[in-house]
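Q: My labmate handed me this sequence with no annotations at all. I'd like to see what the chain might look like in three dimensions before we decide whether it's worth expressing. Could you predict it?
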Amino acid sequence: MNRIDQLFQEKKDRILNIYFTAGFPALDDTLPVLRSLQRHGADMAEVGIPFSDSLADGPVIQQSNGAALSNGMSLPLLFEQLKDMRKEIHIPVILMGSFNPVMQFGMEFFLRTCADTGVDGVILPDLPLQEFETHYAASFDKYGIHPVFLVTPETSDDRLRKIDSLSRGFIYAVSSSSTTGKAKNFGAQKEYFRHLQQMQLQNPVLVGFGIRDQATFDAACANTRGAVIGTAYIQLLAAHRDTIDEATAQFISQITRP
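A: Here is what I predict for the chain of 258 residues:
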C-alpha cells in the first residue's frame, strides 16, 4: 500500500504535511530536515524541487529556490540525496515542483526513480490535466506514484469531479487564488471548505497556502483532513540554520498542541 493511503487510513484528522525546499538552507540539509520533520511529529513531508521560475510561490519560497539552486541543487542530486532515505524515513514523502525540470529529466525515468527511491507522490501544479490523463496517467499507475492535483475556490464542480477521478492519495485545496505565504482569512473560506466536504469526494482533502500557526491549522482542519505548511517553515529554516532540529521540534509542537 502507498504510504499516503496508509496514513489517511490510520489517521482521520489533523494531518500535518510540511513543505520545504530541497537543498535549503544548505545543500546537504535535505535529509536532515526530513529526519527532523519525522522525529517531531509531521505526518507527511513535501520536498520542493528548486526551479528558477516556480509557479504560485510567494517571495519566501522563491528565495529558498534561488538559494538552493545557488547551493548546487538539481533533480539528479536530489534523488542521490534521497536514495537511501527509506532506511530511516517512514512517513510519506511527496515531491513538488514545476513540470519543466521533470520534463527535462524525462517523465518515465523520473517516475521510475521516484519508485526506486521510495517517493510516494508527486505534485506538478503546471502539468495540464488533459496532458496528464493522455500521456502520463498510465506511467504514474505503473510505478505506484500518486499524482496530487490542486483545486482553488474558483475550480468548477465539474472540473473538481474530474480532478478527483484522476487524483490519488489526496486533493490539495488551495485556500485562495493568491501566492503561497499570503495571510488568509480562513473564516471567509469556511463555505469553500464545507462545499468540498459536501461533495463527498473519493479523495481526502488537505488545505494549503496561508497555514502558518496553530490558529490557521485548526481552521483548516475544521472541515478537511488536515493542512500543508510551507512558507512559515521555510522562514524558520532560514532563521535557524544551525539549530534546525530544535527549531523544528518547537515549531511543530506549537502548531499541534491541544
